[in-house]
């Protein structure tokens, strides 16, 4: 009964205080809030509660758990990291929330949760960026890159997110867009990648209102310095740049503003 009440409360998006009372009752604790170290053997420790908050997209409850137990729950070695779970559910607000807290935890513990890999058996060592690109989740791919996800990280097959997405059989247009997003981070495009990207572009160009024609590579030339600078600034500032574009532009010299478009996709 306690299990059902807790799950029902999370699924119904009840207030955080009510859900916590159900969780504490489920683990038979008289204290209002339990420390993570005391909850290892209980029915619903914060780690499991956070998993259910992500599964049922309860953003406020997830924020509460990360604020109170984030440093502990994000250090746990899981078969499927919680960030990877949020990406597979295509829950962009949840992905942003976990990325924000993982950044602060990385500073304290030096554990890079953003690039944590799933187990070899279930996830083949994929990171959240691998999953986002492979599934064609453009929003999640951009969020992860903006928060500094490592696009060079390899899975158990030795594939980066870009190569994993290119391995997708009959890749959709969204997968193609994710590939183009990952290309912005590449300093040098490998020759074996170019024919695959060009083939994907030919498939989807006629079917969709394609806006990527000018970005499809034709030779393995190094990425231009302007594009590298733009990507570096966007990756560093992430979503914050959209809140301060006028102020940011006022700090740049006129020659830079003449050539760099921060709002475009190129």
UniProtKB/TrEMBL annotation:
Keywords tagged on the record: ANK repeat, Repeat
Stretches forming ANK repeats: 124-156
Classification via InterPro entries: Ankyrin_rpt (IPR002110), Ankyrin_rpt-contain_sf (IPR036770)
Pfam families: Ank_2 (PF12796)
Keyword Magnesium annotated: no
Keyword Zinc: no
Top-level lineage group: Eukaryota
PANTHER family per the UniProt record, alphabetical: ANKYRIN REPEAT AND PROTEIN KINASE DOMAIN-CONTAINING PROTEIN, ANKYRIN REPEAT-CONTAINING PROTEIN-RELATED
Protein name: Ankyrin repeat protein
């Amino acid at each position: 009964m306690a299990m059902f009440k807790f799950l029902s409360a999370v699924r119904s998006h009840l207030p955080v205080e009510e859900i916590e009372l159900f969780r504490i009752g489920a683990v038979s604790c008289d204290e209002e809030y339990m420390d993570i170290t005391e909850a290892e053997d209980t029915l619903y420790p914060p780690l499991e509660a956070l998993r259910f908050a992500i599964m049922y997209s309860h953003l406020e409850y997830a924020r509460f758990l990360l604020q109170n137990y984030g440093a502990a729950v994000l250090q746990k070695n899981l078969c499927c990291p919680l960030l990877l779970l949020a990406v597979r559910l295509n829950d962009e607000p949840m992905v942003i929330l976990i990325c924000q807290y993982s950044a602060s935890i990385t500073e304290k513990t030096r554990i890079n949760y953003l690039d944590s890999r799933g187990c070899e058996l279930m996830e083949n060592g994929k990171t959240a960026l691998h999953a986002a690109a492979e599934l064609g989740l453009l929003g999640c791919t951009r969020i992860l890159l903006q928060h500094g996800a490592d696009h060079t990280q390899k899975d158990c097959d030795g594939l980066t997110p870009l190569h994993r997405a290119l391995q997708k059989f009959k890749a959709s247009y969204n997968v193609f867009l994710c590939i183009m997003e990952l290309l912005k981070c590449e300093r040098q495009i490998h020759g074996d990648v170019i024919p695959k990207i060009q083939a994907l572009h030919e498939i989807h160009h006629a079917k969709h209102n394609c806006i990527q024609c000018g970005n499809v590579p034709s030779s393995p030339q190094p990425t231009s310095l302007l594009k590298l600078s733009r990507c570096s600034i966007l990756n560093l500032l992430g979503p914050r740049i959209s809140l301060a574009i006028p102020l940011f532009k006022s700090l740049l010299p006129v020659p830079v503003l003449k050539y760099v478009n921060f709002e475009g996709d190129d």
